[in-house]
Amino acid sequence: MNLIEVLILATVQGITEWLPISSSGHLVLVQQYFGLNVPVLFDVILHIGTLIVVLVTFREDITKILRAVAQLNFKTEEGKLALYIIIGSIPTAIIGFLFEDTFQSFFSNLLAVGLAFLFTGALLYLSKLPKNKNRFINYLDALLIGTAQGVALIPGVSRSGATISTGLLRRIKKEKAFQYSFLLFIPAVIGATLGTSVKEWNNLATADIDAVSILLGLIVTMIVGYVFMKLLFKIVVKERFHLFAYYCWTLGLLIILAQVLRAF
């Protein structure tokens, strides 16, 4: 990888991981149409960068949640969130374990990616329909949002789009839907990163990528990601979240059209 490719991939990751337009879907497109071969190590680095952004952004919430857990106090809002994060992580883990090979196969199937973008667009658009979004999260919400996060392992299905939309459809308060979505992201990305590291250890150890590329990718992902994380929060609060549906629909249709034309 040269530095231009590093910048492109890190920027794409930093933007699309937070905006509800699927980072995995966009990385597939970048790799397919630009012929980039992304080393496993660099993919892991990008995910570490996004994880750091979440940890920094929600550091106060995380501290309160850990304190509640240490005190075994699950009656407070933070204590309940700890339980909901555990509950929401269960369906994500089950879906990932059962369908990992199937979802991985979609990374080389642009038609499936295009259909997934259409699905994401539908979720985003539907999220605007419920009114009176003022509830706190409950156990059923946690299970449904965790399931949405598991489905978002499909490239083209946005993780933030699926989880936040599910929360909004459940009439959860906008700020809480946003908060829970990214707190739930933490155990998911840690688990996925560890799993990938163990499974691909030989490829990681022999990756042909220099320290400058790793550091540049990490820094760019963190800076761009932090900016767009803040932007996404404003979009959700101002009830503009559903507008990304039009982008996902357009991109999905273009991908499908390109695949149909290629077939002829």
Describe this structure in words.
The chain has 264 residues and is an all-alpha fold. The chain has one domain (3-263). 77% of the residues lie in helices and 0% in strands. It has helices at 3-16, 23-34, 40-57, 59-70, 77-105, 110-126, 139-151, 159-169, 174-199, 201-205, 211-237, 244-263. Helix 1 packs parallel to helix 11 (211-237) and helix 7 (139-151) runs antiparallel to helix 8 (159-169). The longest helix has 29 residues, at 77-105. The chain is globular and about 55 Å long. It starts with a helix and ends with a helix. The model has no long low-confidence stretch (mean pLDDT 92).
Name the features.
single chain; mainly alpha; 264 residues
State the shape: globular
Radius of gyration, in angstroms, nearest whole number: 18 Å
Any low-confidence stretches, pLDDT <50, length ≥5? none
- Structural class estimated from helices and strands: mainly alpha
Give the termini distance in whole angstroms: 33 Å
Q: How large is the count of helical segments?
A: 12
Tell me about the largest β-sheet: none
For this structure, the quaternary state is single chain
Number of strands: 0
Q: Taking all residues together, what is the mean pLDDT? A: 92
Number of discrete domains: 1
Strand content: under 5%
Following the backbone from N to C, one meets helices and strands in this order, namely: HHHHHHHHHHHH
Give helix % range: over 70%
